[in-house]
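Researcher: Go.
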Amino acid sequence: ADFITVHMPMTDETRGMLNRNTFAMMKPSVRLLNCARGGIINEADLCIALKEGEIAGAALDVYESEPLDKDSPLRDCPNLILTPHLGASTIEAQDNVGLEVAQGISDYLLHGSLMNSINMPSLDSQTSAKVQPYLRLGEKMGVLLAKLGQVGTERLAITYGGLATDLPGDPIARSIIKGFLGAAEGEEVNLVNVRAMAKERGLVVDEIKSNEQVDFREWLHIRAWAGGEKVSVAGSFFGLAQHPRIVRLNSQPVEINPDGILFMMTNKDRPGIVGRLGTVLGKHGVNIANMSLGRDREGGQALTVLNIDSEPSKNCITELESDPDISKIRIVQF
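Model: Structure:
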């Protein structure tokens, strides 16, 4: 060969594979180029081969030790070109990189497409369009789950059902964890760092794709464990516009719009409780926009969930909690 160029990773098998022995098999006019990894060419042997005229010349962009030592013998070798590991930085390459970066940002901002990312799952524009509703629903479900659960959650189990099983789970899981940690920890969480933050806190995240038959064409179900206590939230979409809805809380069927301010209350199932709730909220100037009721059995435990237009004052909450049949009032802001 007149020219030999190196294009391979550094491994135990490739280390020093071009050496005194291989130089001896080359014709004296050969020229070597290494822009791959330092150490694939034995540098000491290369110096000898160049000084003795065993090969005609070489060009190196990578070295066994980088940056190249000031007293490296390579600096005194004849017919040797040395560049500081910037062989990719040609004018044409820099132009192409700039165009590629601009195209990537444009695709993300306009279409939600995320390609060639090293710390996020790659999504083309078509898949991104399908996933976006789940990202919004998942984050809100994570927020709600954090408010339902206890401090010190050890494990989350995320189940994808129906049409959701056909979608990439990682971006959806990231949105759920983002909502959960952001609400539980009160820290700045984003889709890039959520996996690392969960690992730091010892939070185990399991993901399951289920073929269980339920009442919804597509759904998400999240369970959280803290000690021996478990809480759960399930969500789906209603209508062609894919309006997000919470459809189960702790196994109780509900229909909750996860938007704005949510008032959640556990209470005894008895006559008059809804009337008292409306009276107290009205007294304190809190308007009810929507209501969802559920119970485990007649006369048992009930769950009351309201969408309200403003957050109740502490006095309002205290007055409600003075009723012995009302407990566990929680306010969630999305």
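Model: The mean pLDDT is 91.
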